[in-house]
Amino acid sequence: MGVRENLGEIGRNIGKACERSGRKIGSVSLVVVSKNNAPERIMEAYDAGVRDFGENRVQELLGKVDVLPGDIRWHLIGHLQRNKVKYVVGKVVLIHSVDSLRLAEEISREAVKRGIVQDILIEVNVAGEESKYGVSAQGAFKLTEYALALPGLRVRGLMAIAPFVEDGEDNRRYFANLRQLSVDITSKNVDNTFRDNFNILSMGMTGDYEVAVEEGAVLLRIGTGVFG
Ligand SMILES: *Cc1c(COP(=O)(O)O)cnc(C)c1O
């Protein structure tokens, strides 16, 4: 199947998952993960109407920003090293993968220097996997609190990469946990601006996005399901 057909099917599946869980369809958005795909291929998704694309490596992201249309909203979804921060701040609408105080500080410093506000998510290692980045639930409280006090940053919510599983159902508890964590962080924080902004849950990939929708995902990151 082509990219357009894949997008159509994913859209229908999202719709059904919203219906099952009593959610409004407009409350879920798709970030198409374009890593490892050439610009021509990415343009097939663009021509089908996609404007939000995610990349996990800075180098690859920058190469694509330069050659693809300027109205694309780029998302950095992969691990970010502090020495690369200066290349992405202001170029991406959302950094999904903030996982340390020092990284948050560096992004803040760069955003202030450029006179902008950078939206970020805190990455949580929901299953405590050694192979994955991200903070613990406790760490997410601390990091959110800390980032809240930094200028040039807006903490928009939480992100998780669930384990690779055959059956997406196996990740339901991790998605539910991330959602609960976001509720807990919000209820502990009295700052109204923070509460208004802290409303994104980035979770769900090709193998488990329907379950993620049922558990409250706001942004889905889907690559293989779109490009094959
Ligand atoms: C590659 C990647 C995805 C997309 O994974 P698929 O299974 O291809 O949909 C999502 N999130 C992150 C962080 C990724 O690196």
Question: Globular, elongated, flat, extended or rod-shaped: what is the shape?
Answer: globular
Rg (CA only) = 17 Å
Largest sheet: 8 strands, parallel
Reading side by side through the largest sheet, how are the strands ordered? 7-6-5-4-3-2-1-8
Q: Which ions, cofactors or small ligands are bound in this entry?
A: pyridoxal-5'-phosphate
Helix proportion range: 40-55%
Number of separate helices: 10
Oligomerization category of the chains in this entry: single chain
Label the structural class. Answer: alpha/beta
Strand content: 15-25%
Poorly predicted runs of 5 or more residues: none
- The end-to-end distance, rounded to whole angstroms, is 8 Å
Instruction: Please trace the helix and strand order, writing H or E for each element.
Output: HEHEHEHEHEHEHHEHEH
Mean pLDDT: 97
The number of distinct β-strands equals 8
Q: What is the topological layout?
A:
Blueprint (H helix, E strand, L loop, with lengths): L2 H18 L8 E5 L5 H9 L4 E4 L2 H10 L5 E4 L8 H4 L5 E5 L2 H14 L3 E6 L13 H12 L4 E7 L12 H17 L3 H6 L2 E3 L6 H6 L4 E4 L1 H4 L1
Pyridoxal-5'-phosphate (PLP) binds next to strand 8 and helix 10.
